[in-house]
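Below is a filled-in request sheet from our internal design queue. Each sheet records the structural input a requester submitted and the sequence that came back. We keep these sheets so that new team members can see what a complete request looks like end to end.

REQUESTER: design group, bay 2
PRIORITY: normal
MODE: inverse folding
CHAIN LENGTH: 297
BACKBONE (tokenized):
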């Protein structure tokens, strides 16, 4: 085993447990790092706090996307692919670990990582901060302390080498992804793969809703994005109709009618009604652009 100190990083010590291969990774904004980790207390028993292997899948982080535990990017940048290393980190680097761990545990449990934080502000968030819902993490928050991270680096991928999740995309990337997802959805509809098509339309809507959240409602920027959202939602509803999800169709179409009350007379929308055949006819409306009556089939 080789022990070394990371240069220019105060309060960090590194011990290589198994050497890696190749050069050190060149991280850039948007790089995806895939690795396993184990977190231990710096006590006599080396008490295990978290172990990503228990979840069955490696951890992934995107460089530069405001990951709360910034020291991890620094640690991983010192590793080669296949390397296993142990890092001792002083308390100055581990203060946010309890919150990061809380989110990861909730995801592994199939729960919302922000559960308990929504629709709260001020004092409410203060109390959430001091109560993670896990006794061991509450202790870490009350008593900041050094932690040990054992990491195994699998790979580092450039931003162009993998399909990014919506949350990791820039504004430009989200806008560019929307027509691609729209076309993929239309192609899947033609193959009568309605579940997969609905997922494509939904992903495109999520991209646009994320962008809309940064605009003022009903102003030009918001309205332009809304004009792209509407046909995607209608396409999504058409797929859900074919899948028999009538209540979901009713919910979404009612929301659209309420939101655009007053514009419907100018752009009449075909009614979406359940058909016993369960298949799209050649004239079924799958909307291809902002005008809801255009067809692409």
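RETURNED SEQUENCE:
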């Amino acid at each position: 085993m080789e022990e070394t100190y990371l240069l220019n990083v105060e309060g960090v010590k590194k011990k290589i447990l198994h050497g890696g291969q190749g050069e050190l990774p060149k991280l850039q904004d948007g790089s995806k790092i895939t690795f396993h980790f184990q977190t231990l207390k710096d006590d006599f028993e080396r008490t295990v706090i978290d172990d990503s292997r228990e979840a069955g899948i490696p951890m992934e982080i995107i460089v530069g996307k405001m990951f709360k535990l910034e020291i991890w990017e620094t640690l991983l940048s010192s590793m080669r692919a296949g390397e296993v290393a142990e890092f001792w980190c002083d308390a100055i680097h581990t203060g946010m670990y309890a919150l990061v761990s809380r989110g990861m545990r909730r995801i592994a449990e199939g729960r919302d990582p922000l559960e308990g934080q929504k629709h709260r502000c001020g004092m409410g968030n203060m109390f959430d901060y001091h109560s993670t819902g896990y006794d061991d993490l509450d202790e870490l928050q009350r008593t900041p302390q050094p932690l040990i991270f054992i990491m195994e680096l699998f790979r580092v991928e450039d931003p162009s080498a993998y399909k990014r999740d919506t949350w990791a995309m820039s504004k430009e990337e989200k806008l560019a992804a929307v027509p691609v997802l729209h076309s993929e959805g239309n192609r899947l509809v033609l193959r009568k793969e309605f579940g997969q098509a609905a997922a494509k339309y939904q992903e495109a809507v999520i991209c646009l809703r994320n962008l809309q959240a940064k605009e003022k409602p009903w102003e030009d920027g918001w309205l332009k994005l809304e004009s792209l959202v509407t046909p995607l939602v209608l396409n999504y509803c058409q797929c859900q109709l074919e899948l028999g999800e009538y209540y979901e169709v009713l919910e979404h179409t009612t929301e659209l009618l309420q939101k655009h009350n007053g514009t419907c007379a100018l752009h009449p929308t075909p009614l979406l009604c359940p058909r016993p055949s369960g298949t799209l006819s050649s004239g079924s409306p799958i909307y291809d652009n902002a005008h809801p009556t255009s067809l692409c089939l």
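SHEET NOTES:
- The mean pLDDT is 78.
- The chain has two domains: 2-161, 166-259.
FILED BY: M.R.
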